[in-house]
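Workshop exercise sheet. Pairs work together: one partner reads the sequence aloud, the other fills in the structure field after running the prediction. Swap roles for the next sheet.
Pair: D.N. / O.F.
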Amino acid sequence: MVRSDLKLSKGKLAVQVAHACLGAYKKSVSGIRSEWEQEGAKKVVVKVPDERELLKAFNLAKEHKLPSYLVRDAGRTEVEPGTMTAVAIGPAEEGEIDSVTGKLKML
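Structure field:
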């Protein structure tokens, strides 16, 4: 998920999503990763309105013990250093992820 209030360029947004995805992937369990890859490695990008909602979803994912990763940008281009830009959750069962992101709108 990415913050829509930051108005990131398309390239910057893509990089933030990639950072988040790789971070969550590294935190996941290898058995679940293999299953996810065999099923097509589904990815969905949703948006949140602001930092507060990004943190809310990230903390909920952690409460549910889902692999998740919060991106804090280095601040070299479009945002200030340490700006929280994106969160990735999974790989995990679709229903588990939907319990955190199911009400969010697609990007």
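Discussion prompt: The radius of gyration is 13 Å. What would you look at next?
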